[in-house]
């Protein structure tokens, strides 16, 4: 099987294209132009996809930050809720140690309310300092005081 020699010159190319009527270059050009247009549209779509993906990535990052904040807040709430059992136990222990009046004492207390003993305070708030600070503030705010 022997093959005919292959033409390699420019003249043979021109002869081959003119043999088909000369329509192939214009048809080939229009095919190439159509393919270029398709690729340009594909490129535009890919650019839009890239932009939308960047926006989505930014939103996901914001969501991640918000979820991290939410997670930290949840941990803080869990710590507070874990402490409530201890707080309630302390209140129960403190209230158990408060002396309770006996039944005959209640009859006496009905006749003499000023002798009734009050329960001990569980929390002490220094109100003298707060009152002094408030008076100082009122003195500063008074229009005649400089």
UniProtKB/TrEMBL annotation:
The Gene Ontology biological process terms listed for this entry are: attachment of spindle microtubules to kinetochore; cell division; mitotic cell cycle
Q: Which keywords accompany this UniProt record?
A: Cell cycle, Cell division, Centromere, Chromosome, Chromosome partition, Coiled coil, Cytoplasm, Cytoskeleton, Kinetochore, Microtubule, Mitosis, Nucleus
Cell cycle keyword on record: yes
Q: Where would you find this protein in the cell?
A: Chromosome, Centromere, Kinetochore; Cytoplasm, Cytoskeleton, Spindle; Nucleus
Q: Which residue spans adopt a coiled-coil conformation according to this UniProt entry?
A: 29-66
Q: Which InterPro entries match?
A: DASH_Dad2
Q: What is its main location?
A: nucleus
For region Disordered, the annotated ranges are 98-124
Entry GO CC: DASH complex; microtubule; mitotic spindle midzone; mitotic spindle pole body
Identify the Pfam families for this entry.
DASH_Dad2 (PF08654)
Similarity-based family: Belongs to the DASH complex DAD2 family.
Q: What is this protein called?
A: DASH complex subunit DAD2
